[in-house]
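Hey team,

Filing this mostly as a record. A colleague (T.K.) asked me to run one chain through the structure pipeline before their review meeting, and I want the input and output archived in the tracker in case anyone asks later how it was produced. No errors, nothing strange. Just documentation.

Input sequence:
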Amino acid sequence: MRAGRVTGGRWVGAVVALPFLLGAAAGTPDTTGTPVLRFGDPEIVESSGLAFTPTTRGGLVHTVNDSGDRGRVFTVDTATGSTVGVTSWDAEPVDVEALAPAGGGHVWVADVGDNRRVRDSVEVLRVPVGPGDRTVTPAAYELRYPDGARDAEALLADPLTGRLHVVTKGVFAGTVYAAPRRLRTDRPNRLVEVAEAPGLVTDATFLPGGGGVVLRTYSSAHLTAYPSWRPVTTWELPTQDQGEGIAYALGQVLVSTEGARSEVLAADLPTEAGPTDLAGPAWTALRALAVARGVPL
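Output structure:
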C-alpha cells in the first residue's frame, strides 16, 4: 500500500492531499474496491451523500440519510465505523441528497432532491460537523433553476473558489448548473447552466487541485476536466447495492451505498486523474509563476 491510502479501515502514512500526489496514487482502477468501514450506527440507513475530512489520526467521513430523515449530518470515524458526532437542526428538509466540503469544519448539505419535479426552488445549508453532538441553526441559501424544476443528487464545491455546482439527474443525461460566486440568504440565488452531465449521476466530487471532477452513477465514474467540463475517461466502480456517495480522499475516492450497516469502499482513480488535475487553472498559474521567477517546481 502506498502512503496515504486506505487499507483495512485505517489510513496508512501521512495525511497528504496535495494534487500532485494523484499521479503516484492513481492507477488502473480496481473494480473490487478496498473496505474502509462499515457504518455501525443503526440510524444510518440510507447513506446518500459523502464528504471526507483528513485528521492526524486518519480521517472522518460525513454522511446524511436520503429523503424522509430529519435535518442531521453524521460524522463517522474511518478506523471504527462508529458515529462520533451528529449535527442536527430544527428545520425539516424536503429531500437531502448530497454533501460537499465547505471549509472550516463545515459541509454543504444539499436539499436538492425532487423526484416529481414540483419544487419551485431547492436549498443548500452550510453546517458545522465534527466530533460531538450539536444542534445548530445553519445558514440556508435558496437556489433556483433558470428553466423549471429539476431532480438532483450531486453537489460540488470548487476547492479553490468555493463556488457551488448542482448536477441534475436525468435518465439519459443531466445538466451542470453553477451557483452565483457569492450566495445570498435574503433572496433566491439563480443557477446558470454551464455543461451537460452523464445520465443518472448520484454524486460528484472535485479533485483536490480543482482541475477535475469525478461524477458517479450507480455503477460507473466519469472523470471530467474543470472548468472546461471536457469528458476525460470513464471506468467501472466497485459493485454496490445502490451507489449514492463519492468523496475524494488521499489519492483515492471513497464510495458509499444506501442500506443499513452499509460499507464504504476505497477505489483507485485512473491514471488520467493526475494530469487532469494538474492541467487546472491553479496549477497552470503556479507553474507559470515558477517559470517567471526561475523556481523549480
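Quick notes for T.K.: The first strand starts at residue 6 and ends at 7. The radius of gyration is 18 Å.
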